[in-house]
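User: Please predict structures.

Assistant: First:
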Amino acid sequence: MNEPKPAITFTPALLRPRHDGWTMEKQIAFIEALAETGIVEEACRRVGMSDSAAYALRRRPRGAAFREAWEAALDYAIHRVEEGAVGRSRHGVPRPIFHKGEQVGEWRHFDERLTMFLLRSRRPQRYGKWSDRMLMP
């Protein structure tokens, strides 16, 4: 299933051209990969740059827009993790059933702790701890 790329727009940092440096295209591709994976090392690998170079660009004064886009990409990646957690809570996780070394079926495992965590964090006024509800206005 191909998910559309997030719309994280930013103006890449203008840097001195180098054959092994951060081009505008590499910066944009890095931000897209980071939004997709949520992992800096993986995003760097995809664009052929080191993670130390990415963190160095992020720290530079000229890298302010890159830094902001980086944060937006991580927010998007966390949103996808959250969607996955909600999906697992609602639909469960398939677990295989084996008999004599062969898979003969599967059952769905529902993690009630995950469900309760999601409810408490999203609806604390209703599902939070009793003491938490008493402190809320």
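Second:
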Amino acid sequence: MTKALIVATNTPKFNNVDRATGLWLHEATHFNQVMTDNEIDVDYMSPEGGYIPLDPLCLSADNMDQVDWDHYLNATFRDTHLANSLKPESVNAADYQVIYFAGGHGAMWDFPENKELAGIAEQIDQNGGIIAANCVGVTALLAMRKRDGTRFTSGRQLTSFTNDEEALNGLTSEIKFLPEDELRKTGAKFVKGDAFKPNVVVDDHLITGQNPNSATAVGEAVIKDLLK
């Protein structure tokens, strides 16, 4: 049975300003829907396990579509996946063929230096699995290393939430760092698309999306890879 592990943040607030944050719901629900449509089971994990906060802005009427509402009103999704996500120490990487790091600005604080998350992803990669990430969730790759100890992202084509998109959001001075800049520093070949338009970059079994609107296409690229 093919299984996917969706990883989301536990961070509820920016650490430097009074601004709530968390998972951007759309990034989890749309990827999850693609997995469900293709009969792939999903589990949710977070750095600390337990409750996954949602960025309140993602719940506005303008940001919620039917897929988001269907998940948000589903008791299993709310009470199991979001309220009781798995802890890293309770996850066996061998059980999963896909790991997907969902975005939301909260991920910026608990993904980039998290060796436990990176270790699980590295095992899935070494087992021939798929590493997928979207938007700010791509910062989880910063902690990953190859077998030889070099950066996982070095020389790889990828994308993430861009400097332009952060500027349009008005968050450049409030976030911990600019994901695009940090990924470029690691030697990644950053592929930038139009702001807030779907953009997915596939580099072998590494699949990354630029922004929340890319989540469905990331899921579809994962399915395409699984079917090879």
